[in-house]
Amino acid sequence: MTFVAAGAAWLLWTLASYPRQTAALVLASLAMSGASLWSCRRLFGAQAATLFLVIAVPLGWVAEELGSTKGWLFGSYFYTDVLGPKLGSVPLVIPLMWFGLAHMTLVVASFALWRDASPRRFGWKDVTLTALLAAMLVTAFDLGADPYFVYQLKAWIMAETHGDWFGEPVQGFEGWMIVGFAIVALFLANVAPRAASPKTKTDRIAGLLPVAMFAGLMVFQMLFLAQPELRAVAFFAMGIPSLVAAAGWARWCGEREQTTRGRATHWLAMTRVADPVADRAVAAIVGNDSVSADNGRALARLADATKLMAAWTTNGSLDSWSPADADPAIVAALRTYLDEARGLPEWARTADIEGAEALFMDYGPLSCVLLFCASLPECYVLPHLAQVLHVAGQLEAHTEHRIRQTAAMVFPVMMKGGLTAGDGGGVAQVLKVRLIHATIRHLILRGPPELAAGRIEALPQVPGGRSLHRALLACGWDVRTQGLPCNQLELAYTLLTFSYVFLRGLRTLGMRLTNPQEIAYLHAWNVAGHVLGIRSDLMAHSMAEAEAMFESIQELAREEAIEPDVRPALGGALMATMEKSLTLPVIRGLPVPLTRWLVGRATAREIGVNERVGVLTRLLFAFAMVSVRVFDALARLVVPDFSLTRMFTRVVGYHFMTQFLLDQTRPLALPEEVLKPMRETVATWHDHPRAPRWMNRLEDRLTTHGEWRTAE
């Protein structure tokens, strides 16, 4: 709407002050850039589109200003008044045309190279190849456009009128290549565009539109260029890539539609699959006592099992665990469970796990920010998963407890040796969580999942007072419409929130990782997922697979009718808890806009975050984020590891950790064997080793001086 309003005002100004031909040219430029902006938002997301606009428009204007005033890049020339109002010596429509052409040619190049709306991988080779082809396509357009604008429209006047290309100097085309490559490469180097799956007709149109516009520019040149040689050049130089891109677009639509249909069927089937190993353990713990409202023995046995699991302190402690002073039946059930579940899969790669641990610890406080502002909020998108949390009362009433529980699993998994060493705690903690999931299923279904069918009526009141177990026991459930609680699909989705969403958040914040680093991080969490009881066919092994799976599951969830929708209450409670934890006034209002930035508008709207921040705050935050991202990108050309974004998120992460992880009066529910190395690790995060000294000193002013510890 802002673009439309500004464009309308611009057009009225032009109509009032310039000839109608100029107004028509301005209108055409606004239409092209507006269509490109809409397509970019639809394909890549609002944040990526904003960043593209912020990169292309200023860079295009600077290049043209230097060209028209100093003769750089394009040769010596000056603009007339044909193209309307100017900023400096450059008409305002020219930078917008750079954006429109850059987006248009990026999509055409991507369809031609990758049969997708953007590169499928974002290594430097793929980025360079895509940006190079896009720059060549921009220049292919200019082969006919330059002579037309100079000699037919007289939009600008060249100092040299006897150049080698129909009177144009070849230097101008070199400049178009350089600027076009710079815009597209800078965009791809700082954001990984998330190409939307063409699930709807609108998605398909958004992908086709840039190809159609590029082909339309070819048709325009063939109709209106004066020289027949240039018309032939336009037909081949622009027509061939248009045809190849159109074929790539058609394959893109066909592949995605077929994949989406197959996935939807598989996802629905997985909502009725639980975890047989953990479910057998819970059934054995309960024994012959039925789980019912008037039978407290079953709940007591589950409580006894929970107390026994407290002795699972490290991975090595699981080997010989067998307490003698406990109920033999419960001990036997837990021992059998450990023997079946504690092993890592044969396909686990130690080098990748160690790489993932190093990555998580290297980003330190930022890892906490992404956990609290991205991973947790995305967990609440699936309505039935959110319903379980609502029933347990852990989010609205005990949000901080839920946050700390999540951290109590993530940190042991990602700490050095968490999954592979005997003194690590990742496997032990994951096995506890796995058994908790099975307990939730058993209580909600009031028995083993394999026996559950149809609707389980809610109970008005369960004797014995209010507790988590009794709340789960009292809630109703409909297996036919909701599937099983904590089913395989929900577990796989939750795993993606810890792996894929973390990596996506780093991309969103401009923290570029290599493809092997991303694969290693996904692999480490897949190993943890195996221990958690998740099927291997529900694991993603690349960012492209993870993105497709994540979006497909969310799309399936959004098709369900939700009544009542508990997700806004959960999201609101989470935001309020995070805001309360930030005592530094300058960052207290950050959780809501930061969460919206990381999860996107659709998720923010669904979990109730969208309505908790004003329009002005959104605009200011978006402007600040884009500005800092662009500044970081330019600074990294000189200082490779420079990042203001990292510093700001480290400050937020420090205050989150102080509240949720380092408070000695309320330590995490972890054994001291895990807590002590975690505290020692966090203490080393006080300075980033690759940041400039002045940046670390500024960070100290916003956090604390010295090691990040709390008073004992």
Structure explained in plain terms:
The relative contact order is 0.08. With 712 residues, this protein is mostly helical. It is built from 29 helices and six strands. Strand 2 and strand 3 form a beta hairpin. The strands form three sheets. It has a two-stranded antiparallel ribbon. A two-stranded antiparallel ribbon has the order 2-3. Helix 8 crosses helix 22, helix 9 packs antiparallel against helix 11 and helix 13 crosses helix 20. It folds into two domains: 265 residues, no CATH class; 426 residues, no CATH class.
Summarize the structure.
The protein has 29 helices and 6 strands.
Keywords:
two-stranded antiparallel ribbon; 6 strands; 2 domains; about 700 residues; mainly alpha; 29 helices
Tell me about the largest β-sheet.
2 strands, antiparallel
Beta-sheet strand percentage? under 5%
Strand order of the largest sheet: 1-4
Name the overall outline: elongated
Helical content (DSSP H or I, runs of 4+): 55-70%
